[in-house]
Amino acid sequence: MDIELEFISSDALKEKIGTENKVNYILDRVRGNKILILEESLSYEERKKLMEADMAQIDDEFTGIEFDTLGGDEIVKTWTEKLKKNLIKILGGKTGGLTVIGPSKLIREIKKHPQKISLLAGIKEE
Prior knowledge:
two-stranded antiparallel sheet, alpha+beta
């Protein structure tokens, strides 16, 4: 089985208005045995909804997802950093972040480091 990576821009995700649409879009692609690399971090609420939807869809054929994210909900140390981050968002800019999501049967391991995510993929033997 080939492993397909799909890189999705933050602009493409903005078209998926609302958390539920974004979550459904992600799960549909992952159920198709694709590993997604999103050009944005998922918010706490989006991660929560993704986990809930994932758990509801687990069956004999779909064993669930693995994911991790960089950036996004990190603790902002000063009010000026928070103001700067919010201003960038309001003006439509990108504040950084990255998310990797894939089917559990393909992702052997995800390691999160302070500035990167490492992913080991392959068919898991059962």
